[in-house]
Design a protein that fits this description.
Elements: E1 5-8, E2 12-14, E3 20-22, E4 28-31, H1 32-35, H2 39-52, H3 62-71, E5 74-76, H4 85-89, H5 100-119, H6 127-152, E6 165-168, E7 183-185, H7 186-203, H8 223-236, H9 240-253, H10 261-264, E8 277-281, E9 307-309, H11 311-314, E10 329-334, E11 337-342, E12 355-359, H12 360-373, H13 379-393, H14 405-419, H15 426-432, H16 462-467
Antiparallel strand pairs: 1-4, 2-3, 5-9, 6-7, 8-12, 10-11
Main location: membrane
Subcellular location: Cell outer membrane
Organism: Pedobacter helvus
Length: 477
């Protein structure tokens, strides 16, 4: 029988006292048959899929910073050794784009998670464990495709039915002998994402616990976290009724509770998930590498500290908002200029903190937005959700009683920018709402970009286009 091989990250780092996560560097290769011989091997592969999400090309920098630095929340606090400078300057080209590495990394992640989905069912072991492994892997695959389609394709509503070009949709392990992939439509991509999440949710049990030992429930995809992601996907797909239904269902389940004003700032320190965290990427106890926090760490005098908040963002917070510059930011004078660095990811190295992907506050804002867009609009719930998040942060904030859809949408977008700053959402929120990019406190020659500007969508790597006649480049590159 022909044997296929997979690079296996066998240098293990402790994820907890029980399970192991696969380290970053490949040090050996095992055949697919050997790796998926039993359920324990499948678990190791699944752990590796979670660990890969923490690569710098994915959530440990690129996909968290790119939507913030291009849309106006981030500016540089230095002038040399910059990361994502071409994105900031809106001068990306297909040959040397900072996001080329992200494209390659995420498709590599897809191939690994596709192996988990394909080969786990035939591994020796309990059927219940195997079903949960596959369900978690499908949720990870949905997340990766969701990230890719937002970076490399126009939003779903760019055309009436999402019929414009999306990304290569990879649902099976890819071999060198396979035909070169082509771009699916955005609609096809979202349909695949929805299918993966729907199937995962159906397969999960109600314990809300992942199949891997150790860590916390927030570190794995479960029925609750997959539901939260699906609500967000439906929001991006303009499926307002489903987005509202799922967000409403999860909020009312009371599995998660909003932090109080008094506990908000402290919730961003340490490695224990907060009561409102739904899904976050764990950091191993022995982690000491470069983390997302290193780029925001105010006391870090190395080459990594560089991402400061713009006045465009900090000027949105009132003096009594717990998220303002006196409480949620570290202020530092650098060469006579005062910069503000977020406390959301303030630690590097051994002080690195988990990366939060989905929080209950976002579910409230998803429900608020969908409430006024759904078939039977509900302004009462929309206003209640908006007031809840606004007044949690600022007890002095006026109580809203908005009566038009446009007013609610504008209020939701503003609150999403303030509440979810530095969490990788701003650019995508503006584009799906067909809003222009307006930046003031930045240095690029090109500060403002219209919503249909080609530079808001990243190019596919030139090498990918040149090597694959089936691939079509994005306009403008």
């Amino acid at each position: 029988m022909k044997k296929y091989y997979i690079l296996l990250f066998v240098a293990l780092a402790a994820f907890s006292s029980c399970e192991k996560l696969l380290d970053k560097e490949p040090t050996d290769k095992l055949s697919i048959e050997d790796l998926f011989l039993d359920v324990q091997g499948a678990k190791s592969a699944l752990a590796g899929s979670y660990k890969a999400l923490l690569d710098e090309e994915h959530y440990n920098k690129n996909t968290m910073v790119y939507p913030e630095i291009l849309a106006g929340n981030i500016k540089f606090s230095k002038n040399t050794n910059l990361r994502l400078e071409d994105v900031y300057e809106a001068t990306v080209d297909a040959q040397e784009s900072s996001l080329n590495a992200t494209y390659s990394a995420l498709y590599s992640e897809l191939n690994n998670v596709n192996n988990v989905i394909k080969y786990t069912p035939s591994a020796a072991g309990a059927a219940t464990e195997k079903a949960k492994i596959v369900a978690e892997a499908k949720a990870i695959r949905a997340l990766i495709h969701f990230d890719l389609v937002r970076i490399f394709a126009r939003p779903f509503n760019f055309t009436a039915n999402g019929s414009h070009l999306g990304i290569p949709l990879i649902l099976n392990p890819q071999l060198y002998s396979d035909p070169a992939p082509s771009r699916a439509t955005v609609a096809q991509t979202y349909n695949a994402i929805v299918t993966d999440l729907t199937e995962a949710i159906a397969a999960f049990d109600d314990t809300n616990v992942g199949v891997l030992n150790g860590g916390t429930k927030q570190n794995y995809f479960t029925k609750a976290s997959a539901t939260a992601l699906l609500a967000k996907v439906y929001l991006y797909q303009n499926n307002w009724d489903k987005a509202f239904e799922l967000a409403d269902e999860l909020i009312k389940s009371k599995q998660y509770t909003l932090l109080t004003n008094a506990n908000y700032v402290a919730s961003w320190t340490g490695r224990v998930p907060s009561s409102e965290s739904i899904f976050e990427l764990a950091i191993e106890t022995v982690f000491s590498g470069t983390s997302l926090g290193a780029y925001y760490e105010s006391t870090n005098l190395s080459s990594y500290r560089m991402y400061a908040a713009t006045l465009d963002l900090t000027g949105l917070y009132s003096a009594t908002d717990i998220r303002n510059t006196s409480t949620m930011f570290n202020r530092v004078d650098i060469s006579g200029v005062n910069y503000a660095f977020t406390k959301k990811y303030q630690g590097g190295g051994t002080l690195a903190t988990p990366i939060k992907i989905l929080r209950l506050s976002e579910l409230h804002l998803i429900r608020a937005e969908a409430a006024v867009e759904k078939t039977s609009p509900d302004f009462t719930i929309a206003n209640a959700d908006l007031n809840l998040i606004r007044q949690r942060a600022d007890a002095s904030a006026a109580t809203l009683n908005l009566t038009t859809k446009d007013a609610v949408i504008d209020a939701v977008l503003l609150e999403r920018r303030k509440e979810l700053a530095f969490e990788g959402n701003l650019l995508f929120d503006l584009m799906r709402r067909k809003k222009d990019i307006n930046r003031a406190d930045v240095t690029p020659v090109v500060k403002n970009l219209l919503t249909n500007d080609d530079r808001l969508i990243m190019p596919f790597p030139a090498n990918t286009i040149n090597a694959n006649r089936n691939m079509k480049q994005n306009p403008g590159y």
